[in-house]
Each structure stands twice: as structure tokens, then as C-alpha cells.
UniProtKB/TrEMBL annotation:
Name of the protein: GNAT family N-acetyltransferase
Domain N-acetyltransferase per the UniProt entry, residue ranges: 6-149
Organism of provenance: Rossellomorea oryzaecorticis
An example Gene Ontology molecular-function term: acyltransferase activity
The EC number(s) this enzyme carries: 2.3.1.-
Gene3D superfamilies according to UniProt: 3.40.630.30
Keyword presence, RNA-binding: no
This protein's UniProt keywords: Acyltransferase, Transferase
Root EC class: transferase
InterPro entries in UniProt: Acyl_CoA_acyltransferase (IPR016181), GNAT_dom (IPR000182), MshD_Acetyltransferase (IPR050276)
Length: 149
């Protein structure tokens, strides 16, 4: 990976369709379940609902969306990496950015079935603190927490 080509930028609506396509593909690969919302509804969520409570950042390589994260000072709401760009450090860069901006504690949910994400978060210092399934997919969730040392 040529890290000189990797750019982290605040989300802009011009990237909406590319971001949603990457997000949906990544999520499908992770949980094996098709998105329940239409593509247009997903774009609306990204453009109008998610930014109300979270800062959305993208990772671009040659103007291609290869990662996205939505977070605030206490929570990571979304974090997805393009299926062809996983396991090369992009997720770690995004997480480190969220940690730097945090108030010292970050929480996130991931699907229990998503073993790769669970290993990734645990490797990055997140600890499991709860379980549940309050999500639209009706899949068991794991609540993780990271605390600054």
C-alpha cells in the first residue's frame, strides 16, 4: 500500500453513492445479510441523519472511498473498510483518530457474528462490556469500550 495516496477527509455529499456502496458491500461480507434499507434511504441516512450526532470521515485512495467512520467524543457509530482494503491498517488509522478526539472513553457495538471485527477491536484495546440485539438486523450485538490509559 502506497500510504502517500491515502487521504482522510471529512465526509462530503459528493461521495455519498461511493460511500454507501462500499458500506453495504463491507457489511454484507461481514455479516452475510443484505441491507434492509433501500440504497436511496441509506444515502439519505448518510447525508442527513448520521451527521446530526456524529462526525463522518472518509478514507480515500485516488478518490476511491476505501473507508468510513462516524464517531463523536464517546461513541463510534459506524466503521467500515472496503473489502479490498482490509487488514492493511486503514481501520487502525481511523480508530486512532477517534481515540485522539475522544473524551477518554469510546464505546461501539459490533455484531457478534462479525469475528474479524471483534478480533480487530480487541487488538486495538477495546474490552467487551455487554451484549444485546437492539438493532434493525435483529442480530446479537456486543458492546465494546476503550479507555485511555
Amino acid at each position: 500500500m502506497d500510504w502517500d495516496k491515502v487521504v482522510m477527509v471529512p465526509y462530503q455529499p459528493e461521495y455519498a453513492e461511493r460511500t454507501v456502496k462500499m458500506w453495504r458491500d463491507s457489511k454484507y461480507k461481514a455479516i452475510g445479510q443484505k441491507e434492509i434499507h433501500s440504497f436511496d434511504n441509506h444515502v439519505h441516512f448518510l447525508n442527513h441523519i448520521l451527521p446530526e450526532g456524529f462526525q463522518v470521515e472518509l478514507v480515500l485512495v485516488d478518490d476511491k472511498v476505501v473507508g468510513m467512520m462516524a464517531c463523536n467524543e464517546s461513541e463510534i457509530n459506524q466503521l467500515y473498510i472496503h473489502t479490498g482494503y482490509q487488514r492493511i491498517g486503514i481501520g487502525e488509522k481511523l480508530l486512532n483518530r477517534a481515540k485522539e478526539k475522544s473524551a477518554g472513553v469510546l464505546r461501539l457495538y459490533t455484531f457478534e457474528i462479525n469475528n474479524k471485527a471483534r478480533r480487530f477491536y480487541e487488538k486495538q484495546g477495546f474490552k467487551m462490556i455487554g451484549r444485546g440485539h437492539e438493532n434493525e438486523e435483529n442480530l446479537p450485538d456486543i458492546l465494546y469500550e476503550w479507555k485511555k490509559e
